[in-house]
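Below sits the subject:
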Amino acid sequence: VDTDEIHGSHGAVGDADPVKSTTLGFRNIERVVTYIPGATIRPGEDNSDLRELYDRTVNQWATEAGHVATMIGGASVQYKSGSQPGAVYTPLPRARQVEAVRFLNEQVFRTPTYLIRPDIARRIEAGGMLNRINGAQGRVLARLLEDQRLNRLIENQALVSNPQSVYSLADMLDDLRRGIFSELQGGNVSIDPYRRGLQNTFLTRMDEKLNPKEDEDAPAQQFGPPQPPLSEDAKAMLRGELISLRTAIRAAIPRASNPDRVRQS
């Protein structure tokens, strides 16, 4: 089963709405993370169990967030025999995809402060919390920006008579940029280290899309048909977003509490 397809008969927690089920999952994780120290710290033992359970919880958070990312460019699937009329694959409605990106911006790319636990970090490492949180967010961002997803958003728009009725790649990229760089829209621009890390990850992903490197470690034989590369149309839209971002950063510098950090972002 393609993980990018949202099946009408399947969904997490018995539900076909990944936003709803992931919201519930995040609430559980927010509760669970408070129990980790008490459940793993034992007199005379090291902190290996504490580290393992904490890292597994953060990884589970990223996995659940990834379910929402698959809604973008996703489709509902209704399998049919050759005698049954109608489409098998139907792109998800624009409203559901808009809701999914809004959820990612507000619940995933906005720093999940409940995962930041100094009481745990100081027992297992001298440093690494920034990398842990940014790494989890980066996994979700990478999934959202997969080449095939971006290509599919363009194709979905090309297949309808009313392009405004679908959630286009341009729409998604614009919503994503505004969400990840939301600080640029405020009166007093201040960006904390977690958000700067996410913003740098965003720029790194964009660079990888526009300037892909050959994967020397890729297997010589691949199963199934090769996946087409990111389309030139998609690349043009990515460049357009970077130009819009540059304009927004330049406009925000006079309002920044630390202009150098805004420039770095």
Remarks:
- Confidence is low (pLDDT under 50) at residues 1-15.
- Residues 184 and 251 are 8 Å apart (CA to CA).
